[in-house]
Amino acid sequence: MRRLRAFLFLLLLPWQAAAQEGLPVDLELVLAVDASGSVDNDELRLQLSGIAVAFRSPEVLKAVAEGPYGRIAVALVLWAGHNNPKAISSWVLVHDEVTAEHFAAMVERFPRGGIDGATGIGKAIAFSARALTGNGYDGERLVVDISGDGRENPPDDWTVMLNDSRAFASSRGVSVNGLAILTEDPTLDTYYRYHVILGAGAFVEVAATYADFAEAIHRKLIREIAAPLVVGSR
User: Fold this and answer.
1) Residue 56 DSSP SS3
2) pLDDT tens profile 48-59
3) What is the SS3 assignment for 79?
4) Is the Cβ–Cβ distance between 82 and 159 less than 8 Å?
5) Are 221 and 195 in contact (CB under 8 A)?
6) How far apart are CA 81 and CA 114, in angstroms?
7) Distance between CA 208 and CA 175 in Å, rounded?
8) Residues 6+ apart with CB under 8 A from 226
9) By C-alpha distance, which of 152, 147, 121, 115 is closest to 37?
10) Cα–chain-centroid distance for residue 52?
11) Which of 48, 124, 155, 180 shows the greatest Cβ crowding within 10 Å of its Cβ?
C-alpha cells in the first residue's frame, strides 16, 4: 500500500506543478486606465466604453483566437495619485465571444469610486506589475498597458517613481506599452516613449482626444494580442 501511495504521488507531481504554475495563456494583460484629477467622469467613461467596444470587435477576437493557446487573461486597473488607492477588477480568461462579452460588460460597469488625485504613473506600473503575480495564469507574455493624459507629477511623500517601477517590472519580465491621450499635452507620446514604455518592442499608441480613444485602444489591443515576443518598435 505504501508503494502504491508513493507511485500515485509521483504520478501526480507533474499535474500539481502545472496547477501551481497556473493555466497557460498567450498573454497576461493589465489595462491600467488613468482616473486622475485631469480625467472627468465623462472622459473616464470614454476610456472604459472604448475598451468594451474593442473586446466586442471581431478583429480583437480573431487576434486572440490566432494565438498558440487561443486565450488571454486580462484585468482592468484604475489609477491616479501615487499613494492614492487603486482599483482592480477580477481577472477574466478571454477565449471566445462569451468570455470577451463578460469582460466588456464588467469594464463598462466598473465604478470609479473615490479614485482621483495626481498622476502617479510609476506607482500604477508597480501596482499593475504586481497584479500579474499569483493570478492563476502562466502567460507567454506579461504586459501592462498604461493609458493617460499627463506626465508623472512630483509626489507629496515617498513613493515608487517611474525609474523604480520600470526596474521592478523589468525584473519580473513585464513589458509596458502606452496609450497617450494628447488633450492636455500634445507631446505626451514622446514622454511616454522615453520615460514610460519598457521591454523589447514596447510601443506607444496615440489618441488625439478622448473621442479618439476607442479607435486607438482597438488598434493597440490587436497589436498587443497578436504580437510575438518582440511586438514592434518605438
Assistant:
1) coil
2) 999 999 999 999
3) strand
4) yes
5) no
6) 11
7) 24
8) 63, 66, 67
9) 115
10) 14
11) 124
